[in-house]
Amino acid sequence: MSFNTLRRHFRESGKNLGRNGWMTFASISAVTVTLLLVGVFFVIMMNLNHIAGNIEKDVEIRVHVDSAATEQDQQLIGTKLEQIKEVDSVTFSPKEQELNNLIKDMGENGQAFELFEQDNPLRDVYVVKTKSPQDVIKVAKEAEGYNYVQSVKYGQGYVEKMFDVVNVARNIGIVLILGLLFTAMFLISNTIKITIVARRKEIEIMRLVGATNTFIRWPFFLEGLWLGVLGAFVPIAIIGGVYYYLFDFVNPKINIKFVELLQPSPFIYQIAAILLLLGGLIGVWGSLMSVRKFLKI
């Protein structure tokens, strides 16, 4: 395709949007409303996934070393833990550090534990992080079998339930997003189809004068692209503005360590890119599917 022909298609697609003002407005409105719903759902699901990821990252295994273990025994335990393929990192925390952490975490009430500094009842601990949160249970069970390991703690009972809840939430989110996208494609393609049907005589005339199917498709291809992209601007503006406000208002009030919203930058730009891409793809798909029936010989 020559540059002049491509330029002609761009020019014609722009003119056609202006000639069919009300139909253009209806198509863009359908894209806007649908992408606004899709965008809001993406924002919710991506933040929930972020929070779930933070919760999973916070899961760790604490291997308590028996007080009867020698320094060599302790080092052997650490070496064995590091050799487990599912383990990402192993950090040794002496009992003195454990007591200091306990005093710090208890705040004002921690002063009572300062009495144990001379006779510390706590145990040396290996803090283990796994490459995947789902490997925590497997690694913990293996560590329990080591000599001179007094106990292994990883939130048994609660961790399994948490993983189940997170997996169910993610699966439901994926299904709902796919369903919403399918609905969006159906609504937008049908709205665009009305525009194409209203111009069926134009397509028939172009066929009669010898225009090829490719030549006829290009303006509609571009019109669908413009409709989708233009329809994405308003959702991007609304979602971006509301999210910045909610982030500044809600995030400072959240006092839970692993519960925090995604930073507006680059999150909003990612959402904008997703909506522009979806709008363009859905617009193009709707136009091509609608015009195809008029190009059949």
Concise description?
The chain has 297 residues and is α+β, with helices and mostly antiparallel strands. Helices cover 69% and strands 8% of the residues.
General shape: elongated
Mean pLDDT over the full residue set = 78
β-strand percent reads 5-15%
- Low-confidence sequence ranges: none
> Which series of helices and strands comes N to C?
HHEHEHEHEHHHH
Strand order of the largest sheet: 2-3-1-4
- The total tally of domains equals 2
The number of distinct β-strands equals 4
Distance between the termini: 23 Å
Secondary structure: helix percent: 55-70%
Q: Work out the helix count.
A: 9
| Gyration radius from CA atoms, angstroms | 30 Å
Structural class: alpha+beta
* Largest sheet entry: 4 strands, antiparallel
List keywords for this structure.
single chain, 4 strands, Alpha-Beta Plaits, 9 helices, 4-stranded antiparallel sheet, alpha+beta, 297 residues
What does the model show?
With 297 residues, this protein is an alpha+beta fold. It has two domains: 3-55 and 161-292, no CATH class; 60-154, 2-Layer Sandwich (Alpha-Beta Plaits), CATH 3.30.70. Helices cover 69% and strands 8% of the residues. It contains nine helices and four strands; from the N terminus they run ααβαβαβαβαααα. The chain has helices at 3-19, 21-58, 71-83, 95-106, 136-144, 158-198, 200-208, 213-250, 264-292, and strands spanning 61-65, 87-93, 125-130, 149-153. The chain has a four-stranded antiparallel sheet with strand order 2-3-1-4. The longest helix has 41 residues, at 158-198. It starts with a helix and ends in a 5-residue tail after the last helix. The model has no long low-confidence stretch (mean pLDDT 78).
